[in-house]
Automatic annotation (TrEMBL):
All copies of domain GHMP kinase C-terminal, residue ranges: 213-285
Pathway: Isoprenoid biosynthesis; isopentenyl diphosphate biosynthesis via DXP pathway; isopentenyl diphosphate from 1-deoxy-D-xylulose 5-phosphate: step 3/6
Gene source species: Actinomadura spongiicola
Superkingdom of origin organism: Bacteria
Catalytic activity line of the entry: 4-CDP-2-C-methyl-D-erythritol + ATP = 4-CDP-2-C-methyl-D-erythritol 2-phosphate + ADP + H(+)
Record protein name field: 4-diphosphocytidyl-2-C-methyl-D-erythritol kinase
Keyword set includes ATP-binding: yes
GO MF entry, a single one: ATP binding
Length: 306
């Protein structure tokens, strides 16, 4: 059973105050894009995991865990427990989504494993686990996992797991510049809190951007580019100052909008047309500032069997 699952870019990431459970209140406008990991599961005598880069990808997978620190493994265990079966499964993960790049690659693999294992073990005509059930299970694994199951474009509230699909017209064209090495999501949030405390800024409850939602609903790439925001970007730039020159270069080359994707360090650029995206990717690649330059379109569906 094979499942293909997309990366995400955060069109708006509004970070509010810290909650009692240690998470921040978020407004997270997710957008699924056409960079895909593939997770394949097969029945096996025990639980085993193999991770490799997709044939067309230069993603580095050396540091990806193959034990219960891997979210896909935890997803398989969660489905097995829910269905009352032994977690005897071989999991193969083929990655094209940057690792620790702010594009939810680990969460995407977890979502794919949820869907794949549910189909493998729950093969009745009326499956016990619905897509909504899998999204609920995903919320137990991480804030980004439910969206990777859902896909498309959606507004996430709470810590990002409470999702409402967003009206989106047309296709948006993206260019992503990856960096050498990742950024720790907890470290970026901690740096965000530190910067705010240093400046004496109180974190206000975030609100969904009306300008962003209008741009999505009308398919206006230029307006969407102007409305892109990420409250974690100052923290990511403080931890990785070299990202600023990447963002500046993309804007100089004509991007309609630019921001650090999620907690970084991948930089995302929105182009007005597919041709503009091709030109932008070529120009960025020529700077040598990025480890890899990738093109993708969005929105695309969430985790789905092949």
């Amino acid at each position: 059973m094979s499942v293909r699952v997309p990366a995400k870019v955060n069109l708006q990431l509004g970070v509010g105050p810290i909650r009692d459970d240690g998470y921040h209140d978020l407004v997270n406008v997710f957008h699924a894009v056409s960079l895909f990991d593939e997770v394949t599961v097969e029945r096996a005598p025990g639980l085993e995991v193999r991770v490799q880069a997709s044939p067309y990808s230069r993603v580095r997978v050396d540091g990806v865990p193959v034990d219960e620190d891997n979210l896909a493994v935890r997803a398989a265990l969660l489905v097995a427990a829910r269905l009352g079966v032994e977690p005897d499964v071989a999991i193969r993960i083929r990655k094209a989504i940057p690792v620790a790049g702010g594009m939810a690659g680990g969460s995407a693999d977890a979502a794919a494993a949820l869907v794949a294992c549910a189909r493998l073990w729950d093969d009745r005509e009326q499956p016990v686990l619905t897509r909504d059930d899998l999204m609920d299970l995903g919320a137990e694994l991480g804030s980004d996992v439910p969206f990777a199951v859902l896909g498309g474009t959606a507004v996430g509230l709470g810590r990002g797991e409470r999702l409402t699909p967003a009206l989106t017209r047309g296709t948006f064209h993206w260019v992503f510049a990856t960096a050498d090495g990742g950024l720790s999501t907890p470290a970026v949030y901690a740096e965000c809190d530190r910067i705010r405390a240093e400046r004496g800024e109180a974190a206000a409850p975030p609100r969904v951007s009306e300008e962003l939602m209008t741009a999505l609903a009308t398919g206006d790439a230029k307006a969407l580019g102007a409305a892109l925001t990420n409250d974690l970007q100052p923290a990511a730039l403080a931890l990785r100052p070299s990202l600023r020159r990447v963002l500046d270069a993309g804007l100089e080359f004509g991007a309609a909008g630019a921001l650090v994707s999620g907690s970084g360090p991948t930089c995302a650029f929105l182009a007005e047309t597919g041709e503009d995206a091709a030109d932008l990717a070529e120009a960025l690649d020529g700077t040598g500032f990025a480890e890899q330059v990738l093109r993708a379109d969005g929105p695309v569906p969430g985790a789905a069997t092949r």
